[in-house]
Amino acid sequence: MNKPIVYLIGAGPGDPGLITVRGKSCLERSDVVLYDYLANHRLLEYAPPHAELIYAGKVGGAHNREQGQINELIVAKAREGKVVARLKGGDPFVFGRGGEECEALVEASIPFEIVPGVTAGIGAAAYAGIPLTHRDVTTSVAFVTGHEHPDKGNSEIDWEKLSLGSGTVVFYMGVRNLTQITANLIHHGRSPETPVALIRWGTRPEQEVLTGTLADIAGKARKVSFKPPAITIVGEVVNLRESLRWFDNRPLSGKGILVTRSVDQSSEFSGLLREKGGTVFECPTISIISPLESSELDGAIATLSSFDWLILTSVNAVSHFFQRLTASTLDSRAIGRCKVAAVGPKTAEALRSHGIIADLVPTDYKAEGVVDALRRLGIDGKKILYPRGDRARETIRTELTALGAEVAAPVAYCNVLPAGVPPEILEALEKKLIHCVTFTSSSTVRNMAELVGENRLLHLLEGVIIAAIGPITAASCRDLGLEVHIEPKKYTLEMMTDAIAHHFSD
User: Fold this and answer.
1) Under 8 Å CB-to-CB from 488, ≥6 apart: which residues?
2) pLDDT tens, residue by residue, 301-357
3) Three-state DSSP class for 170?
4) What is the CATH number of domain 256-286+418-505?
5) Strands 383-385 and 230-234, bridge-based pairing
6) Which CATH number fits domain 289-415: 3.40.50.10090, 1.10.10.60, 3.30.1490.20, 1.20.1250.20?
7) DSSP H helical segments within 403-453, as ranges?
8) According to the model, what pLDDT value does residue 64 have?
9) pLDDT tens for each residue of 241-291
10) Model confidence over 433-491: pLDDT tens digits?
């Protein structure tokens, strides 16, 4: 049993990849996670299934809980014998009120550990292509709150020293006070022509950067309704952004991409799109489950040595076939002399994880490609096992049977509808925050239409780019009345991602 302890973890400025190894480890052992508004919710996935998740954030000064209440809650959960992860945006000790929380823990005699995080001033600046120090520009930097405690009668900021004594100045939480900040800096000697950058949602795909000078940045921000959360960088280093910009000029920067794959298969595709700068929305339209009855597949596995070919058309087929193989107390050796055909490189890769190298990987990654490849090899009189999805097309079974093969096609997995489309996805479609919808199988197309309703889906997708992974999926889109704008030459997620990036780069 874990001993009670509180981990104050810096979640970083937004990109979940910036969490430290130690921070991830502490989340993984937690019983309770108290998280802030600025902590990326994807980090909550590291918490164990049993962990209690408690939101303790604030938006624009509107508190979900007051700081005193948060302190009391952390102490109370620890006193229950829990391992508490206090997940805070940025770094706990940089304008994060982590010191106050630690003082409460010391007073309550509760052990704690500080896990530093990447603070927004450093992370957001780096992702905007702005080095806070540069040997040819400045060797000093100051971090300042742009939102002092409202109970203070006078500012504790020494504006004169700040204006003249620091090369780069980084203000946290200062967008609402931008007019006063710029006026104070100019009044105390900083040149009105000093470059300024505002960075909103720094390090996230939706990052926005607005540049100007002390003289005009406040007006520019008002004109475009630039809102928090944001940091403000003042100094000549801002001029380096155009030459060092690397994050928000990627091909899919500012583009919302909807991924419709199943939950357990979406992460790879989503990761590829995020690498290109896309803001990914995940809406699983498929749930893959085992069939209620597996006796037909189990019977085929019991006589596996009698088959000449085993055809596996997807990663799902590989996974569920080997699940039943294991359930029959067998392993890869049971395949014996049987040759194996894999449709697509991902299926072949999944096979290799079981120690099997495919004898045949057709160059055309669809059912017709399998049939053509086996026709050339000659399969008259051959016995073929084809574990399939319950909604698979009949092409392989009917065409190979017509060529003289004996085909057993037991259902290995079932494609079922999820409970529904998340409300936030529908809202994003309504608000046109999604610029491209991706379909990676005919099932994703049909299921999306069934979940949303055909007419409503067609309305929601007006003006939205449609990407289909191959001709069969594209045909299903067109049958629904959708125009397909993107279709990669090879039917892989990598090629799909490249095709989407190319489309938005033109």
Assistant:
1) 469, 470, 495, 496, 498, 499
2) 999 999 999 999 999 999 999 999 999 999 999 998 999 999 989 899 999 999 999
3) strand
4) 3.40.50.10090
5) unpaired
6) 3.40.50.10090
7) 423-430, 442-452
8) 60
9) 999 999 999 999 989 999 998 776 778 899 999 999 999 999 999 888 999
10) 999 999 999 989 999 999 999 999 999 999 999 999 999 999 999 999 999 999 999 88
- Residues taking part in catalysis: 36, 58, 173
In angstroms, rounded to a whole number, what is the distance separating the alpha carbons of residues 254 and 264? 26
CA distance 434 to 66: 35
Mean pLDDT, residues 202-209: 92
92 pLDDT above the threshold of 60: yes
Burial class (CB in 10 A: 0-12, 13-18, 19+), 149: exposed
Alpha-carbon Rg for the chain in angstroms? 28
Q: Which CATH class is domain 5-117?
A: alpha beta
Q: Which residues contact 452 (CB under 8 A, 6 or more apart)?
A: 421, 426, 460
| Cis peptide leading into residue 229 (ω within 30°) | yes
- Alpha-carbon distance values, 250 to 103, 107, 207, 245, 278 (Å): 43, 49, 12, 10, 8
CATH of range 122-244; options 3.30.200.20, 3.40.50.300, 3.30.950.10, 3.40.50.1980: 3.30.950.10
First to last CA, the chain: 57
**How high is the pLDDT of residue 138?**
93
pTM for the full predicted model: 0.76
Are the C-beta atoms of residues 329 and 322 closer than 8 Å to each other? no
